[in-house]
Amino acid sequence: MATRTGTFAPLVGLTVGVTAVRRRDELVALLVERGAKVVGAPTMSIVPLREDPVLRRATERCLVEPLDYVVATTGAGWRGWLTAAEAWGHSAAVRRACAAATVLGRGPEAADAVRATGLRERYSPDSAADDELLHWLSTHDLRGRRIAVQQHGAPLPGFAAALRERGAEVLELPVYRWGPPEDPAAVRRLIEQVVRREMHALTFTSAPAVGAFLALAAESDRREPVLAALRAEVLPVCLGAACAKPLLDEGVPAVWPAHGRLGSLVRMVAETLPARVRRELHTGTDRLVLQGNAVLVHGGVIALPPVPAAVLRALAEKPGWVLSRAELLRRVWPGTAADEHAVEAAVARLRSALGPHRGLVKTVTKRGYRLAVST
């Protein structure tokens, strides 16, 4: 996949998993535009806002008496709440209640959403972490204050409890409550692809999506293999720090962009992922670039099936070195019953896919295979 300028799309040859349910199509389109193969498997479903009696009752409680503070925790959640309020005929009352209160935004995205609805936030930290917002609120006398907290997908028990300890009445607005995934089998397939390292990056747009993914992995007795893959070859990319927290708590080095927007997330994938996986191979006459499941050469792309691509990546880790069939089995087929015939078949498929460059993979009699590269 080449662009008009003759350069390659940044994610060509790379496979990226998408776990989002909201704005999934937009995220997939942005990744495909940059050359990625995308595997989508939403880890949750969303309870429709207009049909959610819990959110409606919480909204009506906010209108019984004046609010002192209103906390917007996410842009999507804030917009969803006001949209639902409008459907119930409460839009004007909710806006008046917020305008009369001190509005706070948890991070830039939430603050932008507040402004887009014609309101102004009094305070918003640079990050979407709860701690900074809680610290600001703690500098004020909260005894007897009514504080509405817009949630997004998962409750914030520590945040709400800290406010209640300071004497506040906390009204929690559970925007976008999550249900189980509509297609659990698709999520289980994604889990297996992560374990087999067939996924090069895995994207998350909310902390509940991370939790649901790990919970489904645990149900399949794959939680530890999944975490091992995410700590090594598979890059976890999150929408923000709050989204990444469940992974960080597990010792997984997730990354996220400075701004919690889909475009920023995709740019981070496109800028970070190729540098992690790209290998240059010089044969003396050709310069080949191995990127994921593709070989880039002479302005063209050679697409490789996942297993032959994994064999080539293993050989490319130490170009020119001989890897035995047993070593390739250990690296490419870990924990399976595959035998050396599987290695031979995968090498044959690799050579076939490489076509005129099939001589890149050399057989070393009675020892194994190596790449014919120049040093």
The helicity comes to 40-55%
Structural class: alpha/beta
What are the low-pLDDT stretches, counting only 5+ consecutive residues below 50? 1-6
Q: Radius of gyration from the CA trace? A: 25 Å
Question: What is the CA–CA distance across the termini?
Answer: 28 Å
Order of strands, widest sheet:
2-1-9-10
- CATH architectural grouping of the largest domain: 3-Layer(aba) Sandwich
| Average pLDDT level | 91
So what's the CATH class of the largest domain?
Alpha Beta
Q: What is the fold-level CATH name, i.e. the topology of the largest domain?
A: Rossmann fold
Q: Globular, elongated, flat, extended or rod-shaped: what is the shape?
A: elongated
Work out the strand percent.
15-25%
Strand tally is 16
Largest sheet: 4 strands, parallel
* Structure annotation, total helices: 15
* Tally of individual domains: 3
Describe this structure in words.
With 375 residues, this protein is of the alpha/beta class. It folds into 3 domains: 15-44 and 181-277, Rossmann fold; 49-178, 3-Layer(aba) Sandwich (Rossmann fold), CATH 3.40.50.10090; 279-371, Winged helix-like DNA-binding domain superfamily/Winged helix DNA-binding domain (Arc Repressor Mutant, subunit A, Orthogonal Bundle), CATH 1.10.10. 43% of the residues lie in helices and 18% in strands. It is built from 15 helices and 16 strands. The chain has helices at 24-33, 53-62, 75-87, 91-100, 108-116, 130-138, 157-165, 184-195, 207-219, 223-230, 241-249, 262-277, 306-316, 325-332, 340-354; strands spanning 15-18, 37-40, 45-46, 69-72, 102-105, 146-152, 169-175, 178-179, 201-204, 235-238, 279-282, 287-291, 294-297, 300-303, 361-364, 368-371. A 4-stranded parallel sheet has the order 2-1-9-10, sandwiched between helices. A 4-stranded parallel sheet has the order 5-4-6-7, with helices on both faces. The chain has a 4-stranded antiparallel sheet with strand order 11-12-13-14, covered by helices on one side. Helix 8 (184-195) packs across helix 10 and helix 13 packs across helix 15. The longest helix has 16 residues, at 262-277. It is elongated. The two termini are 28 Å apart. The relative contact order is 0.12.
